[in-house]
């Protein structure tokens, strides 16, 4: 393993560690009363009282924090500005599609919307998109290298 590869692995490991720390300390770092709500018997219980503005701002902050770290992982993994720009576009698109849906679900929360709220919220607060993008860009890189070899 070359020195350059070691630095890349160390950088990616550090950033993944940051994502783990965000998840581990989520109760202390972010205001999210829905965490306890979804851990409990939410289908039979009532909706907890929460500060809507504070909840929405914390979801936005957590999304952007996770996105920045995920974009760092993508950049270190591929060192390609075009891939990074495309990733920024995809993360922005995801945010502008999911966040209004999340807001709508929060403002109109009812029993039949609990699962939709749960999954949209999960997609916003967890770095799920990186799991899709890394293999996709890796495969793209593999195809590009094969084309050059032909």
TrEMBL record:
<feature type="transmembrane region" description="Helical">
    <location>
        <begin position="119"/>
        <end position="140"/>
    </location>
</feature>
<feature type="transmembrane region" description="Helical">
    <location>
        <begin position="60"/>
        <end position="79"/>
    </location>
</feature>
<keyword id="KW-0812">Transmembrane</keyword>
<keyword id="KW-1133">Transmembrane helix</keyword>
<keyword id="KW-0472">Membrane</keyword>
<feature type="transmembrane region" description="Helical">
    <location>
        <begin position="7"/>
        <end position="25"/>
    </location>
</feature>
<dbReference type="InterPro" id="IPR026414">
    <property type="entry name" value="ExosoTase_F-assoc_memb"/>
</dbReference>
<protein>
    <submittedName>
        <fullName>Exosortase F system-associated protein</fullName>
    </submittedName>
</protein>
<feature type="transmembrane region" description="Helical">
    <location>
        <begin position="86"/>
        <end position="107"/>
    </location>
</feature>
């Amino acid at each position: 393993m070359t020195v350059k590869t070691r630095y890349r692995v160390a950088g990616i490991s550090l950033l993944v560690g940051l994502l783990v720390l965000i998840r581990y300390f989520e109760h202390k770092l972010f205001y999210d009363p829905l965490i306890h709500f979804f851990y409990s018997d939410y289908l039979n219980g009532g909706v907890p009282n929460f500060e809507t503005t504070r909840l929405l701002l914390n979801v936005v902050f957590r999304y952007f924090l996770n996105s920045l770290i995920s974009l760092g992982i993508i950049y270190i993994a591929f060192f390609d500005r075009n891939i990074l720009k495309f990733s920024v576009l995809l993360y922005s698109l995801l945010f502008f599609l999911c966040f209004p849906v999340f807001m709508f679900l929060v403002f109109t929360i009812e029993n039949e919307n609990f699962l939709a709220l749960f999954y949209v919220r999960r997609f916003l607060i967890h770095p799920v998109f990186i799991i899709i993008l890394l293999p996709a860009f890796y495969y793209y890189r593999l195809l590009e290298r094969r084309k050059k070899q032909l």
